[in-house]
Design goal:
This protein has about 250 residues and is an alpha/beta fold. The protein is built from ten helices and six strands, in the order E-H-H-H-H-H-E-H-E-H-H-E-H-E-E-H. Helix 2 packs across helix 3.
Length: about 250
């Protein structure tokens, strides 16, 4: 993948970022998903392979998310989608049982998630530049808090906004509006960093924020067409672009 040099970024007072794929990797979710699948086989007699079950659950989760009336928490959506998926494959369970499994799932994600090394090195640099540094995420708050505290990064963030706290997901814009209300920044003074065009760049741009796509090596992102204001190969490129003096 070719990255042109990231240009100097000026006029930014606050840098907000997603956590999954930006600060923390996907390893905790992968480990927790495998452990959960093993429990499904052991206790519910699920007779399909893990990939088939996971693909079916993702489809059910997307369907539940897209058809959502009003607001449902991450837990509620997770449980409802998984109940639909397991029922399709003949597993007998209840939403109450799955809610208990959700707690174990969250705890496993927190224990097994890894932090990107550039997050550890560059987030303190962003703070040292006098910037307000925050999180805007659709992830479960217990995961965000748990992973950041274990990594020692929690106190480096001035603001942490998760969808369950503001009762609105990023695709509807409420977390971004809340960030502006809390900081009193104008939209153009805030840069939002994430690793997804659809889930990070598009909703942040719709809210008026400036955007940076974190396209780490192997992400498969190709430049071209409408997209983010900046494309970053890593967080070091971000801190460097923000620290460049005129």
């Amino acid at each position: 993948m070719y990255f042109r040099k990231v240009p100097k970024i000026e006029g930014v007072k606050g840098v907000f970022m997603d956590v999954l794929g930006t600060v923390m990797d996907y390893s905790g979710y992968e480990y927790a998903g495998e452990a959960l699948y093993n429990e499904f086989v052991r206790y519910f007699g699920v007779g399909v392979d893990a990939q088939t079950l996971h693909s079916a659950w993702l489809a059910d989760w997307e369907d539940a998310f897209n058809r959502m009336a009003g607001y449902k928490t991450a837990r509620e959506t997770w449980v409802a989608a998984l109940f639909t998926t397991l029922s399709r494959f003949g597993a007998r369970t209840t939403p109450e049982v799955l809610s208990g499994l959700y707690d174990k799932y969250v705890q496993t994600v927190v224990r097994k998630t890894h932090i990107y090394t550039d997050a550890t090195s560059e987030i303190p640099k962003l703070r040292s530049l006098g910037l307000t540094v925050g999180v805007i995420s659709d992830e479960e708050y217990d995961i965000v808090e748990g992973v950041l505290k274990l990594s020692g990064l929690f106190n480096l963030f001035n603001v942490i906004i998760v969808s369950d706290k503001v009762r609105g997901y990023k695709n509807k814009g409420e977390p971004f509006r809340q960030a502006l209300r809390q900081t009193f920044f104008k939209p153009g003074e805030v840069l939002y960093v994430g690793d997804s065009i659809a889930k990070d760049v598009v909703p942040a741009k719709s809210a008026g924020l400036r955007t940076a796509l974190l396209a780490r090596e192997g992400s498969g992102y190709q430049e071209g067409g409408a997209g983010p204001d900046y494309i970053l190969p890593n967080l070091k490129a971000l801190s460097s672009a923000l620290s460049v003096k005129s």
